[in-house]
Amino acid sequence: MTATTDPVARNEWIACGWLGQIQPGASHDTMILGQPIRVTRTGQDSYRVTEIGEDGSEGRELPVQTRFTCIFTTLGEPTRPLPEIAEFDEPDRTVVGCGNVGVNTSPYRLVENFLDMAHFSFIHVDTLGATDKTEVLAYRTEHRKDVDEIWAVDCTFFQPAASKAVKGGQMTRYLYRVMSPFSVMLYKNISEDSDRNDAICVFIQPLTETRCLAYMPMAIVDNENTAADIADFQQSIFLQDRVILENQRPALLPLDPTYELPTRADASSIAFRRWLKAMDIRFGIYEKQAA
Q1: DSSP state, residue 106
Q2: Secondary structure letter of residue 133 according to DSSP
Q3: Signal peptide span per the entry (predicted)?
Q4: Which residues in the chain are classed under CATH 3.90.380.10?
Q5: What CATH number should be reported for the domain whose range is 99-282?
Q6: Is the pTM of this model over 0.85?
Q7: pLDDT of residue 130
Q8: Which residues of the chain have pLDDT under 50?
Q9: Helices (DSSP H) in 51-188: which residue ranges?
Q10: Dihedral of the CA atoms 255, 100, 239, 229 (nearest 10)?
Q11: Tens of pLDDT, residues 44-74
């Protein structure tokens, strides 16, 4: 596959590795948007990213940022900055990178799965959902135009084990935030302090239109469990999702509202697809073939 020419996709910041993945002085070859790249750790906390040509030689050097335990780069000229997520800067939180998980689907299917509360009771039984409590209560979506993000607010769902730190079932409050076509997060209230939320992110590295790596950094209020325990819990949840994601057809995301009929529980997905359509992104989008 050749690199996409879609300027909307090329102008986004995209995760391409996690901090500590590469030893100082070493390199890791990977891909974003169909473009082979090389990520080199040039020092203890510094990285260089370059395009790789067909002969394996390094070409154009790309911009780099390191935040939220991840390495980010871009093929174009970003029109939006990396998001501000204040929870990652709070010193008493446990910040966990969780590595990445490969999924054979489009990046937008990953975003929609993350937004979808309806699957909790069927895919994440006895953790994020229970088979006898399946209703998705009404919630609201917002397009926050000042930052050009999609938010889902006033979300609540019963969860038998909302996180590694929670003992017993509870109605969990959620805020969902789509920060770019390739990044989404949620704020989840699970601690005894009602003013503090766990922050859980998914930053997606689209290798191609239908192959992705998903990075899952979290900033958690948890003084009991180790970072490894928290990462294991999150990885187990995501691996349950992978089976469903890789069986969705088409793998590319249709933006035609008549192709996949939504329900009331899909309000966040509807808002997300309208947002993608308005920005005219073409990478990873399913185009219905004429009869």
Answers
A1: -
A2: B
A3: none
A4: 99-282
A5: 3.90.380.10
A6: yes
A7: 56
A8: 290-291
A9: 107-115, 120-123
A10: -140
A11: 999 999 999 999 899 999 999 999 999 999 9
Count of H helices and E strands in the chain?
5, 18
Q: What is the DSSP string of 156-203?
A: EEEES--STT--S-EEEEEEEEEEETTEEEEEEE-SS-TT--EEEEEE
Residue with tokens 């997905």: 269
Structure tokens at 229: 């325990």
Give ranges for CATH 2.20.25.680 in the chain. Answer: 7-73
Alpha carbons 4 and 58: distance in angstroms, whole number: 19
- CA-CA-CA-CA dihedral for 201, 82, 115, 274, to nearest 10: -170
Per residue in 18-51, pLDDT tens?
A: 998 999 999 999 999 999 999 999 999 999 999 9
Provide the b/e sequence for 48-71 (b: ≥16 CB within 10 Å).
Answer: bbbbbeeeeeeeeebebeebbbbb
Yes or no: domain 7-73 corresponds to CATH 3.40.50.300: no
E strands, the chain, are 14-18, 27-32, 35-41, 47-52, 58-62, 64-67, 70-73, 94-96, 100-103, 140-144, 149-159, 170-180, 183-189, 198-208, 211-215, 218-220, 253-254, 285-286
